[in-house]
Design brief:
- By secondary structure, this protein is mostly helical.
- It has a domain of about 130 residues.
- It has seven helices and no strands.
- The radius of gyration is 20 Å and the shape is elongated.
- The protein starts with 6 loop residues before the first helix and ends with a helix.
Amino acid sequence: MNMLNSVLISRALPLTLSYLLLVAATFSVDFILHKAGLAWTGRYLGVAGTLLVAFSFGYSARKKKLIEHGPLKHFLRFHCNAGWLGTLLILVHSGIHFNAVLPWMATALMMVVTASGHVGQYLVRRIREEVKRKKQQYGIAADRTDGLEQQQFWDSVTLGAFEKWRFVHMPLVTFLVVLTVLHVGSITMFMNWR
């Protein structure tokens, strides 16, 4: 066994590709809208994307038992999918405009939050399952950390790195919500209402 068979490659690589697909899809949709003369629709995509991301917080509400019914895994799946699609719509909304600092800060932070959430939460669960399965497969006690083969070493390092994602993800989400509210508030305040 080598590092190429580790959970780092088998789990992280597909998620990294998914994140890169998000960026590529953003450029593609933005390009198509500009070529079709529909760039103005980006303004409304921001609203739709924000609503999708807001609805994706149902997962957090379900986890904290504010929503009492429904399988948690369905809420997680919706959270991931709505977050991905909402982020795509918001990124197309933001476009390539250099006229305001606040929206760019919010967009950059959204990309960091998306990377953190997209990769972190999914990977922690999957990696934990994979490491447990491999330890059982090789007959390694759950609490044993010395003398692990190289494969288990890489799996343990990966798991340890991603278990701490939440300590970064949640404050970033909070700051993103604040920036989003400031952005929407400033747009509402300075919007030409004619």
